[in-house]
């Protein structure tokens, strides 16, 4: 069963230089955020933005980490206050979840309660942000065109993941959509105003009924921390 509103669980998406993901995962685990999925992506940000982030090259390690609200807030506060001491360079994005497997949610929420019982304190974090993470899923080979459109709408850059379509072909046929197996997922962090412009422009030029077949969605980000 899926827990529709896991109020006690958050997702942290971390993008760091290639080869640093394992160390970041170990740091997060030390701070009671233990559940990680590791992927490899390709950065598309311009060189001046890479300089600001302190990132060299284009390949990225990407972590999708799950933890209780208490533990993830504590971790984000630690990253914010100790960013120069973190032995990695990149960005961490925290977002609340609207759905998660019940067993996973219960286990992580219990861990957060355990931390509270042993004296850990939850950090009061600023959640009045308008930052969002945009997910753009496109057919293989259309990423450059979509990124050019996103940049024209105000995006600074993004991170690309390789993927495959794993849905039902009958559903695609029902909606009249041509499904290509090979997919690419573009992740773009954006402010509220930029988010709307990017999503509208990408949908207009590269939506489901175009060769790119873009599926576009966004999730609000509670915190955005740059470190290293």
User: What structural class do the secondary elements suggest?
Assistant: alpha+beta
Shape: globular
End-to-end distance: 39 Å
Low-confidence parts: 1-6, 115-129
SSE series: EEHEHEHEEHEHEHEHEE
> What is the gyration radius calculated from CA atoms?
18 Å
Number of extended strands: 11
Write the layout of secondary structure elements.
Layout lengths: L1 E2 L5 E9 L3 H10 L4 E9 L3 H7 L5 E10 H13 L8 E7 L3 E2 H16 L14 E8 L3 H10 L6 E6 L4 H6 L7 E9 L1 H15 L8 E6 L2 E5 L1
Antiparallel strand pairs: 1-6, 2-4, 2-5, 3-4, 3-8, 5-11, 7-9, 7-10, 8-9
Brief summary of the model shown:
With 228 residues, the protein is α+β, with helices and mostly antiparallel strands. It is 34% helix and 32% strand.
Walk me through the structure.
- The chain has a nine-stranded antiparallel beta sheet.
- α5 packs across α7.
- By secondary structure, the protein is of the alpha+beta class.
- The chain is 34% helix and 32% strand.
Which properties best describe this structure?
11 strands, 34% helix, two-stranded antiparallel sheet
């Amino acid at each position: 069963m899926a827990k529709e509103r896991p109020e006690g669980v958050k997702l942290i998406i971390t993008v760091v230089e290639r080869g640093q993901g394992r160390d970041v995962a170990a740091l997060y685990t030390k701070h009671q955020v233990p559940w990680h999925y590791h992927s490899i992506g390709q950065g598309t940000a311009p060189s001046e933005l890479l300089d600001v982030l302190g990132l060299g090259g284009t390949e990225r390690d990407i972590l999708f980490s799950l933890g209780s609200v208490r533990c993830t807030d504590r971790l984000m506060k630690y990253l914010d206050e100790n960013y120069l001491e973190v032995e990695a360079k990149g960005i961490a994005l925290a977002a609340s979840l609207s759905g998660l497997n019940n067993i996973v949610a219960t286990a992580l929420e219990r861990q957060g309660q355990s931390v509270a019982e042993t004296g850990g304190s939850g950090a009061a974090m600023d959640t009045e942000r308008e930052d969002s993470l945009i997910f753009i899923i496109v057919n293989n080979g259309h990423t450059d065109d979509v990124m050019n459109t996103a940049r024209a709408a105000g995006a600074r850059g993004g991170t690309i993941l390789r993927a495959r379509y794993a849905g039902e072909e009958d559903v695609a046929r029902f909606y009249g959509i041509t499904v290509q197996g090979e997919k690419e997922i573009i992740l773009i962090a954006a402010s509220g105003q930029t988010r709307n412009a990017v999503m509208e422009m990408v949908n207009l030029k590269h939506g489901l009924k175009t060769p790119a077949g873009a599926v576009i969605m966004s999730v609000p980000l509670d915190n955005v921390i740059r470190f290293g």
